[in-house]
Design a protein that fits this description.
Blueprint: H1 2-15, E1 22-35, E2 50-62, E3 65-74, E4 87-98, E5 102-109, E6 111-113, E7 119-121, E8 123-124, E9 129-130, E10 133-140, E11 146-160, E12 163-179, H2 180-183, E13 192-204, E14 217-229, E15 232-241, E16 256-267, E17 270-280, H3 310-314, E18 324-336, E19 348-360, E20 384-400, E21 405-417, E22 430-443, E23 448-459, E24 473-482, E25 486-494, E26 506-516, E27 519-528, E28 531-535, E29 538-542, E30 545-555
Antiparallel strand pairs: 1-2, 1-30, 2-3, 3-4, 4-5, 5-10, 6-7, 8-9, 10-11, 11-12, 12-13, 13-14, 14-15, 15-16, 16-17, 17-18, 18-19, 19-20, 20-21, 21-22, 22-23, 23-24, 24-25, 25-26, 26-27, 27-30, 28-29
């Protein structure tokens, strides 16, 4: 680390002599919380009372050289962040060199092969997730349209006492991709655009069990194909993972697979997206003994829409099941033309989305459960059972009635199997909900505008006629903006349908913010309910809280 810092400082100092070749960019983010005890919602006050997360990234480019670092501070971490974040120190650092055909990085780096189903090292700060690689990355572009990537290193597991803690396992990988239309002159102007890619990733971890013979080297490999023709796109990827006994699969020796298919069509006023995914035994970690969100080498794209409305996104979110799921999604976006009877003066936008996920079939015919091979079942591609994990049908219609007034109506029908993707301890089996949202915006004048949301969640009773989970909810949101910098908002999430009258609680949260150029400051105060916070099928639990939150962001 000291060597990297010395190189980073050297590049910075030397480059000041030729400022026209120097670029320095970065950003700062800080989140501060002062929390109160609230026995009504189960919120506790930490011993320190105040919590803070702070980050600062700095990136330096000088001619063909590059360097970067991130300083992180958790004193202590904000509520809901994993307990593996603690202290102040350097959480990411790298140096490198790049030109038109080679790009080499030493130190920390992020990278992705294809869709990420075989390898993805990335950070999502809102989730407290960071599985960066520490080691070496090499990217070669030997010919136009040809890219070769190689990665080698350890994954970041945690950040303790201001230091990066790495996984026990080493990750190695190579990926190649060729766009034939760019690489072959005869195909330069063809309407059909073809891109082919292939990947191989392996991990090494010492066998630490006496009762089992564990493979120390586990490989995963696959290929992908992307086609574009006029307004159509079609892409597919297939990955195979070798025997990888782990905590996730109860140390069985089955192979794993993952397949992803995407189809798209777009023209002015119309977009269609169809997707399908088949996954079995694809939990791929650099440490076989870890669980939850620790040390995933790969990423399985979520096959459901990311919702932004409060009730649809926070109460019953779905987390991707890496052990196995077969999922489908379809989405249509259509805009009714302007100056028509239905479209009106400004046109009308309609969005319809459907997604679902099922447990794969696991056939045991001909399988001897006492066999020492520990292969416990057989599974096929897109061979799904009738066991539903998740289903979501949602539709919205947006219409602008005048330069000042617009309206959006949305409906969501969401079913979640709480026995699999558990989000609450108060329900079993399928949780069935209907959600309606009315959103209206009004521009008072050039500087002042107001936006309002009225949301309702109605939960179906269980088979015995009892109220399922916590019953019905309602949310009201009001936002007022003063251009160019100020905004004010208040949110009230109310569990009015709870069977226990003492738990019919208002979760009121208000915030004030100011934006100037690349600076943003927000102050919020109020209650926030306990629950899962999810992004792209990856979730973390956030406990209930009551108090002050101050956030600051700055880019440079």
């Amino acid at each position: 680390m000291k060597t990297l810092l010395l190189i980073f400082s050297f590049i910075t100092l030397v480059s000041f002599g030729q400022k026209e070749d120097l670029t320095i960019t970065g950003n700062i983010e800080s989140i501060f919380q002062y929390l109160n005890e609230d026995t009504l919602i189960g919120a506790t006050q930490p011993d320190q009372k105040a919590l803070i997360n702070t980050y600062m990234n700095v990136y330096v480019n000088y001619k063909n050289f590059k360097a970067g670092m991130r300083v992180e501070s958790y004193l202590p971490r904000i509520q809901g962040y994993p307990n593996r974040f603690d202290g102040t120190g350097i959480g990411m650092r790298y140096v490198g060199y790049q030109n038109s055909w080679v790009d080499v990085t030493l130190g920390s780096f992020y990278e992705q092969f294809g869709s990420g189903m075989i390898f993805r090292a990335y950070e999502d700060r809102s989730l407290g997730y960071d599985n960066l690689m520490d080691g070496a990355k090499l990217i070669l572009r030997p010919n136009k349209g040809v890219t070769i990537k190689g990665v080698y290193g350890y994954q970041r597991l945690s950040f303790q006492e201001g230091k990066i803690i790495h996984s026990d396992g080493i990750v190695r990988g190579v990926d190649g991709e060729i766009n034939f239309n760019s690489a072959i002159k005869a195909l330069n102007n063809k309407k059909l655009d073809v891109t082919l890619g292939a990947s191989f990733v392996s991990k090494y971890q010492k066998d630490d069990r006496e009762d089992l013979i564990l493979p120390e080297n586990v490989g995963s490999y696959g290929a992908r194909l992307d086609l574009r023709y006029k307004r159509f796109t079609l892409g597919g990827e297939y990955i195979i993972k070798e025997q990888d006994p782990s905590v996730d699969n109860s140390f069985i020796y089955n192979y794993g697979h993952a397949a992803l298919i995407n189809f798209g069509y777009s023209q002015k006023g119309l977009g269609i997206i169809l997707s399908a995914k088949s996954v079995d035994n694809m939990s791929f970690r650099s440490d076989r003994n870890k669980d939850l969100q620790d040390l995933f080498i790969n990423y399985l794209p979520a096959m459901n829409k990311t919702h932004t409305y409060n009730l649809a996104s926070t109460l019953y979110p779905y987390a991707t099941q890496p052990v196995g799921e077969i999922a489908f999604q379809a989405e249509v976006l259509y805009t009714i033309k302007r100056k028509t009877k239905l479209g009106g003066k400004y046109g009308t936008s309609i969005n319809v989305n459907y997604s679902t996920a099922y447990r794969p079939n696991q056939h045991t015919d001909g399988i001897d459960v006492n066999d020492s091979s520990r292969v416990t079942y057989k599974s096929g591609l897109f061979d799904m059972s009738d066991s539903l994990y998740w289903q979501d049908f949602n539709a919205s219609i947006y219409k602008k009635f005048s330069k000042k007034f617009n309206l959006k109506l949305s409906y969501f029908n969401i079913m979640l199997n709480n026995d699999v993707a558990k989000v609450t301890g108060d329900a079993h089996g399928l949780i069935k909900t209907n959600i309606g949202v009315v959103e209206a915006g009004y521009k008072i004048n050039k500087k002042h505008s107001i936006r309002a949301e009225l949301q309702g969640l109605f939960i179906a009773k269980d088979e015995l006629g009892h109220i399922n989970d916590k019953g019905n909810w309602a949310t009201v949101v009001l936002e007022y903006s003063i251009s160019p910098g100020w905004f004010f908002s208040i949110l009230d999430q109310y569990n009015y349908g709870n069977a226990n009258s003492t738990d019919r609680i208002h979760y009121i949260y208000g915030s004030i913010g100011y934006i100037k150029d690349a600076t943003r400051i927000t102050v919020g105060y109020g209650r926030q309910r306990a629950g899962l916070f999810c992004v792209g099928g990856v979730c973390r639990f956030v406990p209930a809280s009551n108090g002050l939150t101050l956030s600051f962001t700055q880019s440079f």
